[in-house]
């Protein structure tokens, strides 16, 4: 209890109404995901100060969001010269900046060329499978890398899995909990349907259908938007949900468990892997083993690991070479 007070006292600030809370920065706040995410974080009662940064349109989004009568104070930051001020003293930094996919493109095609500039700008995106490794390398170079504090957001895969599984089971998605591990692209997204809560059994064709739909959820949206971008609303929802969990962890709440793509030591031999982690005051404090897998999932895990290894290495080489 005493420690909690100290942490809150050191980290917190006072928003409107004098309520203690956390300071959160969004980098890429004027983008397709960033705008909705800014709205959702302004509505989060745990946030007392919200820094909205972007290379364009940050003042407009800031003015707009600042008229919402919620507690968080909002400040806007525009362009590289203001990036440092946007980051100073923040408890949590969320980076939704990216380049949307067009139909027919894989996540990798969008990222590694067009995202380099953005990532170098912000961490001196998508796909998480490579960008977390890129961010780690950038932080290592700067001597500031803390593996517990760099978390790739895979919450949208879990949200999609809960939604699609609930549809098949005829349940409310809020009653369903699907563990999704691996990464955030195609076959690296591995839903462990044998561990669904509440305990449920699926026919082989349901397993095939659900696995494919969960793995291709992003593509489903890209194709439906027909060239106008990729998922922004559900991605902002997922990022806001994950950010809220991070803040509850920072506050010292017990048992805040979420899936995230993190530096991994015990789950597989890969340096990064999405698995269940316990979020606490110092970030991802504990990672959990995958639990018992059936044959279908074991085969899926091997495929996921093979692709992930390449994507992670691409990220590392991107900075090192
Ligand atoms: C998603 O899962 O919707 C995002 O990663 C965007 C994309 O390109 O699929």
TrEMBL record:
Catalytic activity from the UniProt record: (S)-malate + NAD(+) = oxaloacetate + NADH + H(+)
Name the family.
Belongs to the LDH/MDH superfamily. MDH type 1 family.
Span-the-membrane segments of this chain are 20-41
Q: Which UniProt keywords apply?
A: Membrane, NAD, Oxidoreductase, Transmembrane, Transmembrane helix, Tricarboxylic acid cycle
Which residues does the UniProt record annotate as the domain Lactate/malate dehydrogenase N-terminal?
Answer: 23-152
Q: Which PANTHER family does the record cross-reference, listed alphabetically?
A: MALATE AND LACTATE DEHYDROGENASE (PTHR11540), MALATE DEHYDROGENASE 2, PEROXISOMAL (PTHR11540:SF52)
- What residues make up the catalytic site? 184 (proton acceptor)
Q: Where does NAD(+) bind?
A: 28-34, 54, 235
Q: This protein is called what?
A: Malate dehydrogenase
The entry marks the following residues as binding substrate, namely 101, 107, 126, 160
Q: Where is the Lactate/malate dehydrogenase C-terminal domain?
A: 154-318
Q: What molecular function terms (GO) are annotated for this protein?
A: L-malate dehydrogenase (NAD+) activity
GO biological process terms held by the UniProt record:
tricarboxylic acid cycle
Q: What class of enzyme is it?
A: oxidoreductase
**Record organism:** Eruca vesicaria subsp. sativa
């Amino acid at each position: 209890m005493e420690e909690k007070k100290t942490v809150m006292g050191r980290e917190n600030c006072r928003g409107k109404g004098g309520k203690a809370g956390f300071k959160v920065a969004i980098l890429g706040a004027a983008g397709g995901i960033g705008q909705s995410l800014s709205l959702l974080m302004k509505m989060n009662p745990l946030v007392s100060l919200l820094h909205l940064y972007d290379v364009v349109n940050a003042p407009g989004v800031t003015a707009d969001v600042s008229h919402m009568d919620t507690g968080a104070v909002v400040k806007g930051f525009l362009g590289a010269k203001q990036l440092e001020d946007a980051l100073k003293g923040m408890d949590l930094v969320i980076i939704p900046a990216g380049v949307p996919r067009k139909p027919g493109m894989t996540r990798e095609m969008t990222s590694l060329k067009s995202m380099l500039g953005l990532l170098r700008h912000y961490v001196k995106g998508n796909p998480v499978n490579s960008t977390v490794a890129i961010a780690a390398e950038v932080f290592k170079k700067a001597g500031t890398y803390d593996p517990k504090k760099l978390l790739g957001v895979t919450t949208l895969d879990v949200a999609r899995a809960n939604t699609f599984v609930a549809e098949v089971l005829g349940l409310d998605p809020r009653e369903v909990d699907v563990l999704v591990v691996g990464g955030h692209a195609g076959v690296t997204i591995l839903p462990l349907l044998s561990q669904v809560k509440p305990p449920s059994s699926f026919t082989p064709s349901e397993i095939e259908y659900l696995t494919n739909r969960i793995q291709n959820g992003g593509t489903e949206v890209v194709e439906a938007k027909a060239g106008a971008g990729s998922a922004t609303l559900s991605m902002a929802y997922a990022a806001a949900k994950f950010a809220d969990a991070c803040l509850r962890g920072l506050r010292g709440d017990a048992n805040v468990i979420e899936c995230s793509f993190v530096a991994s030591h015990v789950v597989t031999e890969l340096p990064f892997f999405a698995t269940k982690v316990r979020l606490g005051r110092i970030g991802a404090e504990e990672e959990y083993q995958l639990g018992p897998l059936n044959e279908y999932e074991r085969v899926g895990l091997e495929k996921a690991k093979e692709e992930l290894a390449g994507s992670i290495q691409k990220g590392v080489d991107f900075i090192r070479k």
